[in-house]
Amino acid sequence: MTRIKQFFNSFFFYRFIRDPVAIGSFIVLAVLFISGFGAPVIAPHNPYDTTTIDIMDSELPPFWYPDSDSRFLLGTDSQGRDMLSTMLYGMRVSIFIGLGAVTLQAFLGITIGLIAGYKGGRFEAFLMRVADVQLSFSTYMVAIFFGALFQAAFGMGLYENFAIPMLIFIIGFAEWPQYARTVRASVLGEKKKEYVEAARVIGLPSRRIMWNHILPNTLTPVLVISTVQVANAIMSEAALSFIGLGMPVTRPSLGSLIKAGFDFIFSGSWWITLFPGIMLVILILSINLLGDWLRDFLNPKLYKG
Amino acid sequence: MKRDRGLLSVENLVKHFDISGGLLDQLSFDKGRLIRKQTTVKAVNNVSFTIQAGETLSVVGESGCGKSTLARTIMGLYPPDSGRIYYQSERIDHLSSHQMLPYRAKMQMIFQDPYASLNPRKTVRQTLEEPLTFHHRNLSPGRVKEKVAEVMTQVGVAPQWAGRYPHEFSGGQRQRISIARALMVDPEFIVADEPVSALDVSIQAQILNLLMNAQKKRGLTYLFITHDLSVVAHISTRVAVMYLGTLCELAPRAELYAAPRHPYTRALLSAIPKLGRKKQKHIRLSGEVPTPIHLPGGCVFHGRCQYADDRCHREIPELKRLSTGTYVACHAVEEGRNQP
Amino acid sequence: MGQLLAVKDLTVKFALRRSSLTAVNNVSFSLSRGERMGLVGESGAGKSVTGFSLINLISKPGYIDTGSILFEGRELTGLSDEEIRQIRGNRITMIFQDPMMTLNPVLTIGTQMVETLKAHGNISTRKAEAVAIDKLRLVQIPSPEKRLRQYPHEFSGGMRQRIVIAIALLTEPALIIADEPTTALDVTIQAEIMDLLITLCDLSKMGLILITHDLGVVSEVTEKIAVMYAGKIVESGPTRSIISDPSHPYTKGLVKAIPGNIPPGEPLHQIPGMMPTLTDIPAGCSFHPRCEYAGNICTTQIPDLAPVPSRQSNVACHMISGRLAPSDIGSAARRKRQTAIAEELPA
Predict the structure, then answer these.
(1) Nearest by CB to B118, which of A125, A195, A201?
(2) DSSP H helical segments within chain A, as ranges?
(3) Range with the lowest mean pLDDT among A52-61, A186-195, B156-165?
């Protein structure tokens, strides 16, 4: 109880409720997350259940068209799936991959950055060169390479089952140097401080100093880049799906929905591609706005000079 | 012959830092040839002294003279390049971190910056409990709590504030907490690196009193690193003066202030602003302060010394004992040339 | 000696969202031509804000609330930015603790000095260089012609501070405000810079306001001092008499807290507690929670800075003998305290 009270009295909360952009994007994001993860409960249809799908319902327009069906609020896609339900399920997949990839990135990057920054010397030089090499490959290049390899090796059938972990792995692995660099930079700053020397004087082993003393003090920048990275990971996934190397159409993410609808855009069924597109933009925008606010809050020097 | 090594003894300690960076940074072109150049900071050069149990040995010197490096090398934070460090006649400078553990509970350190020396993410209780539980693993939680409260009371911070974070305290209070952390393991020997330099005068007096009190009660031995000569005059038993990584004079306090021998000590003492008394003439040192990267040959002080002669340019003076108990490293003193 | 600067009832506030904080409260002092004055206090006492506000260098949200600053017969409060710039860096110059605050690391010191001169007057580059060399010689920099072509990083800390002083001297100011000019320097260098400041002030009849926390430095350099506590001057007067025989309990405490005035190893005198922050300055005399002499009146009434009989100093304290009627004091214990302080102080 006191914790909660403390939070509401904190400067963080004070600044938050006085910033309309922060509140707005937080509310939008919360609604998207809840409806995404609550999709099985909220969504009117289950797009994964092929028995409920009727091909005769395909390409029905949204509700304001005269030939729309009242069962499908935002119309249906080419396979007859309800757009709204498919989008909610798709967003769940997108967010899940985004968070999963960022968790993997953060785990790899923080560990490597922390060890490199604390140990220093040749070890650091080696790890940071590896990070440089990794960064010099574009994320998409790595992802396309591995994605194509997976598909060729396992075949489409197996690929559908492993698509989510594979995408998490690809996107997570491609972007860990961002974290490693950020963490290493702040570890180098923290390492010089006297509280670290005090911990060494006590005789604490390096591992404990690294994880218990230094790491908690480097998490502020990690938090800031995490928001950007979640948005980036969702974008990466959408892009991969769009070129056909991401989620299969049977378990669509927002990206694969956009791609699926793209083929019908000239046949007049614009809603199949536009609605997921708008949803993706709103999702990314609200994450980025919230991230910007967080960055400004945690580091006021950044813009005040 | 068994030597008296006191509580802590440092023999011919040398610590240099390589600041030339990676291999690529070291390479440079000189007259058309590629050469590799290494830059080292010669922070501590051949320093020897002994600290007796129960005394306060102060090391004074100006910024960059290597006094903080000396303190950190003694604490094992930097490995020495050469030389030996003895604690109670046991050599400790080459021990592994595991072998060093028993000494970690006996030797502690207090730092200069009260804002950097406490982990901002840990409460006072967490900061104080850590050294205790680490060195005494089978202590009951009740006993740990008791001990934290006891030490906090001793340093003058109310124990009910143990749940707070460092940023909720003022500089003086943080320094008290920092001292409490050092006292948690009941050490015998404390290295204090400029513990009052960052504090205001009235707070400085509080902290110095606290340190002197703790020494009286616990029989502590201090190695006190500072640049403030009036603080040194107040608390030390003996004083060591350092210049550019070298010890130039080591003397009992009263002796040093009454009859400074080394020309540098004299200049240093004459530079202290005196309160209320008529302004005295400062001894002006000529020349620029050399950097510890390009140490002058011979006596490191010769470029700024009014008594320097040929020998001072060539030969490094040794620390020699005078009849008064003063150790001084100066050719001019040895030859009696140091009278103006 | 003519009057150079007269500050009267200066109050500087910092605006907050709904309220404001008073950083400098009703401060008055004056300075004659060629006089050296020290503004002494611990961090947060308002000494730097006072110094900066003289030349309107306080950054937002700070502002001068009330008071007057009369410099060479001209009122400085209420001048436009352009008008104050004519005076700042010209008639009044500043020296900061960190020389690199004044020096631009990417320009040679020659360029910086010439540009300063050109900004404040119509002068040819050649003439400006001659002036610069002259000033560098004045601050005892060897071979100034050569040094003019060097960059700040090629100088040591003490040398940089000398150059900053030389830059401050370029326009032949009537007043220099020095904010902790020697704090970052080693003792031997500090002594040299202090000697230099004294010589320069004597030489060109320049006024000096030295802002510092170091009573030792102040007592060597200045002729008079003002001791500040929580935004107010608590004691002011000739340096020698205040340092050797302070009247205000806070000044007494400060002087006694310095090691060197009592036998080595003895406990130092300590003032209990610490200076209040600007957000919670106590009512009445702001020093009363830390004061061993405080009586009832001290908790309610703000003492005025007033002359002490038989002394040359002004003190803001109720407990100076002869100031109070016994009814103000309260309990017998308080009265005893007052007699104690009365014994210490000549009536």
Answers:
(1) A195
(2) 2-9, 11-17, 20-37, 39-42, 83-119, 121-136, 139-191, 194-202, 206-208, 219-242, 254-262, 271-298, 301-304
(3) A52-61
Using 50, 70 and 90 to split pLDDT, how confident is the model at C335? very low
Beta strands (DSSP E) in chain C are 3-15, 20-32, 36-40, 62-71, 74-75, 92-95, 175-179, 207-212, 224-229, 232-238, 306-307, 314-315
In a domain, C198, yes or no: yes
Residue of chain A whose alpha carbon sits nearest to that of B120: A217
Nearest CA distance, B116 vs chain A (angstrom) = 5
Q: Do chains C and B touch (3 or more CB pairs under 8 A)?
A: yes
Q: How confident is the model at residue C323 (pLDDT cuts 50, 70, 90)?
A: low
Q: Which two structure tokens, joined as six digits, stand for B322?
A: 């005078």
C187 contacts in chain B (CB < 8 Å): 62, 227, 229, 268, 271-272
* pLDDT at A300 (0 to 100): 54
Instruction: Name the more confident of C9 and B283.
Output: C9
Distance CA B314, CA B296 (A): 10
What structural domains and CATH numbers belong to chain B?
8-21+38-236 (3.40.50.300), 260-340 (no CATH)
Residues C266 and C121 in one domain: no
| B336 DSSP assignment | T
Nearest to B134 among A194, A203, A216 (CB): A203
Same domain, C293 and C235: no
Helix (H, G, I), strand (E, B) or coil at A20: helix
Number of domains in chain C: 3
Q: What pLDDT is recorded for position A115?
A: 92
- pLDDT above 70 covers a percentage of chain A that reads 97
Residue C62: CATH number of its domain:
3.40.50.300
B117 contacts A193? CB cut-off 8 A: yes
Residues of A at the B interface (Cβ-Cβ below 8 Å)?
Answer: 125, 193-195, 197-205, 213, 216-217
Closest CA to B92 of B186, B16, B9: B9
- Which pLDDT band, with edges at 50, 70 and 90, does A6 fall under? confident
Please name the residue of chain B whose CA is at the shortest distance from the CA of residue C159.
B288
Q: How far is B243 from chain C (nearest CA, A)?
A: 12
Which CATH code for domain A83-304?
Answer: 1.10.3720.10
For residues B99 and C55, what is the distance between their CA atoms, to the nearest angstrom?
Answer: 61
Instruction: Tell me A209's DSSP state.
Output: I
Based on the fold, state whether residues C269 and C210 are members of the same structural domain: no
**C254 in B contact zone (CB under 8 Å):** yes
Query: What does the pLDDT average to over A198-213?
Result: 92
**CB-CB neighbours of A255 under 10 Å:** 30
In A, which residues are within 8 Å of B175 by CB distance? none
**DSSP three-state, residue C71:** strand
Q: Is residue C194 less than 8 Å (CB to CB) from chain B?
A: yes
Is residue C330 left, alpha or beta, with left meaning phi > 0 and alpha meaning psi from -120 to 50? left
Decide if C192 touches B, using CB distance below 8 A: yes
C241/C245 Cα distance (integer angstroms): 6
> Are C291 and C340 within one domain?
yes
Whether residue C234 sits in one domain with residue C189 = yes
- Write phi, then psi, for C227 (nearest 5 degrees): -95, 125
Q: Classify residue B57 by its DSSP letter.
A: E
Chain B residues in contact with C219 (beta carbon < 8 A): 273-276
CB B283 within 8 A of CB B271: yes
Facing A201 at nearest CB: one of B109, B119, B120: B109
pLDDT in tens, A128-147: 888 888 888 877 888 788 87
Q: For residue C96, is it within any domain?
A: no
Residue-range definition of the domain harbouring residue C132: 101-170
The pTM of the full predicted model, rounded to 2 decimals, is 0.83
In terms of domains, do C107 and C69 share one?
Answer: no
